[in-house]
Write a structure and sequence with these properties.
The protein has about 80 residues and is mostly helical. About 70% of the residues lie in helices and about 0% in strands. The protein contains 5 helices and no strands.
Length: about 80
């Protein structure tokens, strides 16, 4: 997926989500392996409430790959 399309999809209309997603995109996406990139793109395809629930730790993803990328995004943003 193109960088511009990913940036657009990271804009969710909720500042907290935008910051979490954009920070990971800017700092980690380029160096991520194919599985991480695929999981990130799958996360971005989810509805906003679901993404918010995962990134704000209100729910756990049912998918292992989504869970791993959510944890990676949260770790990246806690540095």
């Amino acid at each position: 997926m193109s960088d511009g399309k990913l940036r657009w999809q990271c804009r969710r209309g909720m500042r907290e989500l935008d910051e979490l997603l954009m920070t990971w995109l800017d700092e980690r996406y380029a160096a991520a392996d194919a599985a991480q990139k695929q999981a990130f793109e799958a996360l971005l395809a989810l509805p906003d409430p679901e993404i918010a629930a995962y990134l704000l730790k209100k729910e756990s993803p049912g998918s292992r790959s989504i869970g791993l990328i959510v944890n990676e995004i949260l770790r990246t943003n806690s540095r």
